Amino acid sequence: MKYRLLLLSAALIWGFAFVAQVVGMDTVGPFTFNGVRFVIGSLALFPFLYFHHQEKSPVPTRIPQWIAFLMVGIPLFLGATLQQVGLQYTTASKASFLTANYLLMVPIAGLFLGHPLLRNHLIGALLAITGVYFISITEDLSINFGDGLMLLCAVAFTVQIHMLDYLTQRFSPVLLSAGQFMVTGVLNLILAFLFETPTLSGVKGAAWPILYTGVFSTSVAYTLQAVGQKYMPPTEASMILSMEMVFGGLSGLLFLNESFTFRQTIGVAAMTAGVFLSQIPSPVLLAGFRRK
User: Taking residues 195-210, what's their average pLDDT?
Assistant: First the structure.
């Protein structure tokens, strides 16, 4: 129960971070925002590394630490960057729901890693696809650019979740978190200086959103995810983390005066039903294609 609560807390923090991510881009670009945010998140964990640097992991490994940081940091960089850029073209509420597609991608990808596919996972996936259609596809069958970026972001987070499942058995979750944040932050800052014009005044203007996302959404929430995933299978962890979409939708409604059309409301209902149905135990439809 303790680790489920850790993951639920991470989902709560991430959900309400969508508002901060939108507001923060009033004065800085998405790459600058993410670069500063993730570097702060990494630095905030340095004091805790003193207590965790000697933590023993259950599975020995020959993977160098810097390789492990890249293995989990690059998919986090892709997911967080696609999400931040996509928020310029879609609403926070829609973004939170579309990002939650990783919930249904994780068990499907898990088949290739030896995890079984349950009946309710398949039914939930079909409901979620229906929900995505009603949320994102307009009457002329076009899809918003930002919505497409959010779906790609869900793919990246799927990879990150499975990488954490593998690496938290071999490295300290706190060490992995600090490493993946620094990789993500540095890569975003490189993009910021290439494609944006970062200014100190712009960063100061976004100080509160950056601090919230840097300390809470990044340092605290992603570390809670890493610790929780060390003791829970990836599919179950992703299901709990998917509550982010509910909290994200609420934050958009409460703080940004966003609203859903009737068509989008149908999509939200279908996707929510798919998410929660996927959490109910059910018979195995397909065994994993290989053993873990």
Answer: 93
